[in-house]
């Protein structure tokens, strides 16, 4: 069973069962042709997509191997990509060397399609079917996306009015701890992942705080760098917020969560953060069986989806800039060769790199009303739902 599952996961979805068949039936021939044409349309050769010019527009200023500035142009690759040579370490490289696009034949347009799907809450399983990729490839690309965004939230800092509240998401059913009688643990237990969500009027920050009820220490450690001293904190009367309020000298406006539950959304002072909780759950449900060890990766991605700029193409543009300006590699074998627990993101940017990151990420920041975000997400969900229903008929 395990073996079968493994074969299935690694199986490329770009092939039909009749590749070698000489005498296909008319129906098999139709399906074969339709499937292959669809795949070819979506995966044109590199030279036809204009991406060689795009790659060449990124001009490296230092050698990706030794950081030397003495580099010179050194001919082109087979696809017309500019090659460079380092005069110090003598290595040759191109603008994609040591980026997420190195050593893999992902065309940028394929990657762009993939990213747009993920930004629209499409699960990686659905995406792999859609793009005819093996599930493992889609999962690997997702990890590359996580890598690009691993420091995305580190530069987020709120001031003035800040909302803060926790939401909980269950561990995978196989990891649920039960009592000796086989019952689930009651209340907030180690079976619940605690996700702290803070926001201002236009931006969202999501941090995995641990399992079960949050503590004052965890909450303080999670949010101390993201809320400016003297801000106003709008929250419920959660005990875990006390240290944060005290240490950052916050002006605390705390509501009784039992009482405000009875209010309409319009009158609920925590409505903004509640709505983000709901959207986050929809996002996580789209990846329902995801690896919980990568929860912070999913949260970084969710925050990226929620925050400005609003347009998904502008988001992809930011990701591409990040890929070329903050080179990071993740080789396929490395990814599948190590336990994923070992891939815990390390946000180890230097101050200057972080400034570049902030510049790339926040240069287009403009406030978006959450109402607009909610409408867009509902609209996209409806389209996905209708498409799935239509296809299954
Ligand atoms: Zn070098």
Low-confidence stretches: 1-10, 338-346, 348-353, 363-369
Q: Any ligands, ions or cofactors bound here, and which?
A: zinc ion
Arrangement of strands in the largest sheet: 6-5-4-7-8
The biggest beta sheet, please?
5 strands, mixed
- What is the percent of helical residues? 40-55%
Structural class: alpha/beta
Structural account:
With 393 residues, this protein is α/β, with parallel strands linked by helices. It has a domain at 49-97. Helix content is 43%, strand content 12%. It has 15 helices and 8 strands. The protein has a 5-stranded mixed β-sheet, sandwiched between helices. The longest helix is centred in the last third of the chain and has 23 residues, at 370-392. The two termini are 30 Å apart. The structure holds zinc ion. The site of zinc ion has 8 residues, from loops.
Give the SSE map.
Blueprint: H1 2-10, H2 26-42, H3 51-57, E1 71-76, E2 82-86, E3 92-93, H4 108-119, H5 124-130, H6 135-149, E4 161-170, E5 192-199, E6 204-211, H7 216-223, E7 232-236, H8 242-247, E8 251-255, H9 257-260, H10 271-286, H11 295-306, H12 312-325, H13 332-337, H14 351-362, H15 370-392
The chain binds zinc ion.
The site of zinc ion has 8 residues, from loops.
Write a short abstract of this structure.
This protein is of the alpha/beta class and 393 residues long. The chain contains 15 helices and 8 strands.
Protein traits:
393 residues; alpha/beta; five-stranded mixed β-sheet; three-stranded antiparallel β-sheet; 15 helices; 43% helix; 12% strand; globular; disordered N terminus; binds zinc ion
